Every structure is written in C-alpha cells, then in structure tokens.
Amino acid sequence: VQFMESGGQAVHPGVSLRFSCSPSGFPFRKYLMAWYRQTPVKAREFVAVLGGASTVYQDYADSVKGRVTISRDNAKNTVYLQMNNLNFEDTALYYCNQLPPLESWGQGTQVTVSA
User: Fold this and answer.
1) Is 14 left (phi over 0), alpha (psi -120 to 50) or beta?
2) What pLDDT band is residue 54 in, cutting at 50, 70 and 90?
3) Main-chain phi, psi angles of 90, to 5 degrees
C-alpha cells in the first residue's frame, strides 16, 4: 500500500489550497478515505473523511469545519482536500489514509502559513 500526497506549499493567511492523494495497493472505491495532519508539537489528528462507494457520508474536525471540503474521484483513485481561508494553525504536514488508518503512511505534503 502506498499513499502519495501533493499540493502543499508555503502561503499567506487567507489563501486557499487543494491537496491531492492517489493511493495504491487496495480497492480505493470500497474504503472510507480521510485526511490527517501533524505538526512537530502535536500528534497526528483527523481532519476530514469521505465515504467510499457511497460518498454521502462526510465528517470534519471542528477546527476546519466550514473551511474545508473533502472529495474523491474513484475513477482516478484520488482523494482531494480543498482548504479555504488558511490560517497559522493550519500549518502542518497533511496525510491521506483510510479511516481507520492503515499502519503505512505516505510522506505527506507540507503546508506552511506565515505572514
């Protein structure tokens, strides 16, 4: 199993970013897919989740609710995270994984929000 995240960059507050993740090694459309994030001083935390074959189910962490949208393209085996109005607290390494997560993680994609 592999996870390949992309889309992170250094930005100013208020900017929007979209992350992409293209996992391999399992039947993508069957699984809940989620985004997580981690900083050097905080444990990895849940950000958002989206249902598999049925994409009706969604949930978001309170810290990002209203600013973030998770989506997926099962034909492309890709899950996305759209983050709007980024703030300093969004600075982190962002990962995708199943929910619950597998033991294997990707390299993540770094987002740094600074003035």
Assistant:
1) left
2) low
3) -85, -5
